[in-house]
Amino acid sequence: MEIFLDLDEVLVDFLGGACRAHGLTHLEMIRVYGDSVWTGEKFIRPIVGDADFWTGLKPFEWADELIALVQRYDSAFHIVTCPLETLTDAGHCQASYTGKVRWMKQFFGPRFDRFLITPHKYKVAKPGAVLIDDSPPNCNRFVADEKGRATGGKAVLFPHRRNDNRHAMTDPVAYVRESLRSLTSSPA
Q1: d(CA 105, CA 55)
Q2: C-beta of residue 31 within 8 angstroms of C-beta of residue 96
Q3: Is 121 within 8 Å of 82 (Cβ atoms)?
Q4: Per-domain residue ranges of the chain
Q5: CA 168 centroid distance within chain
Q6: Does domain 2-185 have CATH number 1.10.10?
Q7: pTM above 0.85, yes or no
Q8: pLDDT in tens, 46-66
Q9: Where does the chain have alpha helices with state H?
Q10: What are the CA-CA distances from residue 4 to residues 28, 86, 93 (Å)?
Q11: DSSP state of 156
């Protein structure tokens, strides 16, 4: 099994970092800007050009346990993460590339090179590949392309307050453990 593991909101507390950049709690952000804050220009403005924002993000308390679990299935797993999309120039935030690479080198060590930074995670989908991601669209496209054709890839939707697996947020690693067990015991 080849595992591709998402970074933001799976290993790294991106939303917590964004709240700190705004000087607000998550609930205050929603109260002030509404739930669509995470996709708007007001959200992006304080972080768009700041590679240090990405480098300074904190790993979740389960990050080490999740990595250990993933390594039991794939010792050479890859991180696959999407760059921040900027709304102002319809491109991607260059600082997010730089900051994410720095973060991974700090967390995994300076020689770590098993990562992909792309909004096209589905491009690595194939038989035997599994994506662990908190985004339903990313997981869906990893399993079937935009025309509904099976890619051969499998996906585990990581528990998050904004997806259907929010019920498993109290122990997301246990949820991933059971999901991987199910994937390895199911017929191809």
Answers
A1: 10
A2: no
A3: yes
A4: 2-185
A5: 17
A6: no
A7: yes
A8: 777 788 999 999 999 999 999
A9: 14-22, 26-33, 41-44, 51-55, 63-73, 94-108, 136-143, 172-185
A10: 33, 24, 22
A11: E
